[in-house]
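Renewal narrative, Specific Aim 1. Our central claim is that a sequence can be written position by position from structural information alone. The example that follows is taken directly from our test logs and has not been curated for this report. It begins with the structure tokens describing the chain, in the order in which they were read.
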């Protein structure tokens, strides 16, 4: 029994007249009558009493029609919800963000999505790329945005580049190294704080410090909380490695300065959106990814300017 024929039963119960019910569902009266008869034959029960033009449900008909109404209502709700889900007005999504994008990209993304899709639920997990990769593979999140240079060469992953974010060393405005050239080793003496460093950055630090081969540098503070790193830079002589975008307001205010490190070559973070290759993101995840790309593009332009 399909929903269309259930609709015919409800229409006849409402109109109590074959001609009016047939008109309501846009059928000829003979076709409508055949539809009702086929349901009765299929169920082996008389569902309507026909008396002098008026039609009334039998007890069996009333029993069935009550449930048919609920089914038709649920079907309409399902169709409506499917359309809303397709258009990003319903449903939810979960995604991850590494420390840099969590500080520089994700806030604007969340604000935009909340304004455009207030009925949608968002869950954002902040962690380093290695932990976020495990969450993605376990399908706990639909995608993540993070530093991608240390991701494994996995054919099941798809990485969309978001470009580079320049990074430098920063210290408080009254820091002993502020306003004068220094070497990386001199900055290191005050303690370097950073998020988890990708392998290329660790190799660079080891070379600048002239460490023995195979020796990894040990940071004074390694932390994925960018706000805590900023507080360290503002409140102590600790030197902090950060993207320029994250601390640009502090630099403009003079509370933090970018150190002039003579032997430090240009460094950057390489951001990307990571998804599973053979998994279709939900409509809301697709909109979130598009928003991430848009915000990242504007952030990169601001950083270059």
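The sequence written for that structure reads:
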């Amino acid at each position: 029994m399909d929903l269309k024929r259930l609709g015919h039963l409800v229409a006849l119960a409402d109109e109590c007249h074959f001609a009016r019910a047939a008109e309501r569902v846009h059928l000829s009266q003979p076709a409508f009558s055949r539809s009702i008869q086929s349901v009765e034959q299929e169920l082996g029960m008389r569902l309507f009493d026909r008396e002098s033009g008026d039609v009334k449900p039998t007890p069996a008909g009333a029993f069935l029609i009550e449930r048919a109404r609920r089914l038709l209502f649920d079907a309409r709700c399902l169709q409506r919800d499917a359309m809303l889900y397709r258009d990003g007005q319903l449903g939810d999504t979960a995604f991850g963000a590494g420390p840099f994008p969590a500080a520089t990209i994700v806030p604007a993304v969340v604000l935009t999505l909340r304004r455009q899709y207030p009925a949608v639920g968002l869950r954002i997990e902040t962690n380093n790329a290695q932990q976020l990769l495990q969450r993605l593979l376990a399908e706990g999140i639909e995608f993540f945005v993070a530093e991608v240079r240390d991701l494994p060469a996995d054919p099941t992953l798809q990485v969309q580049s978001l470009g580079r974010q320049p990074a430098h060393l920063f210290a408080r405005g009254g820091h002993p190294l502020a306003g004068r050239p220094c070497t990386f080793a001199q900055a290191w003496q005050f303690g370097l704080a950073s998020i988890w460093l990708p392998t290329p950055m660790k190799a660079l630090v080891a070379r600048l410090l002239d460490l023995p081969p195979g020796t990894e540098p040990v940071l004074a503070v390694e932390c994925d909380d960018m706000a805590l790193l900023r507080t360290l830079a503002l409140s102590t002589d600790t030197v902090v490695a950060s993207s320029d975008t994250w601390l640009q307001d502090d630099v403009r205010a003079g509370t933090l300065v970018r150190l002039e490190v003579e032997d430090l070559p240009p460094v950057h973070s390489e951001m990307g959106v990571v998804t599973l290759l053979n998994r279709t993101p939900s409509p809301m995840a697709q909109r979130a990814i598009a928003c991430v790309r848009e915000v990242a593009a504007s952030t990169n332009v601001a950083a270059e300017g």
